[in-house]
Amino acid sequence: MAMAAGEHKSGTIGDINVTPLIDVLLVSIIIFMVITPLTPKGLDALVPRANPNAGGDGRPIVVSVDAERRVRINQDQVDIRQLGSRLEDIFETRNERVVFVRGDSSLPFAEVAQVVDIAKGVGIDKVGLITRKPKEAGQ
To answer: Which positions ≥6 away from 4 have C-beta within 8 Å?
Structure first.
């Protein structure tokens, strides 16, 4: 509350009451403090594993690019120009359209991104990136 000392000729005091503003500010700070720990952190991770309910043979599809830029679908070598059509053929009979991409660590990311782009271009729903195992990462 504002108090005035002395006499005013007009009789009114033109001060702003900031108490409601401070109350709203404190309540909003408390709300943000409560909500912040509930927000999810991190990324969703896909782990390649066989799905017995999937159409086809159920094995996960892993597209790998080695240091010599050779592209393989699981163990079958394929030309990068035919990668899209081969993936379409494979996922023609599958319910779940998930592919995993493994790239050699010496490759520039653009080489791996090209494979991801081809997979997305043929309608693959989810593309997961396979990284090195933790024991290999320390080497």
So the answer is: 13
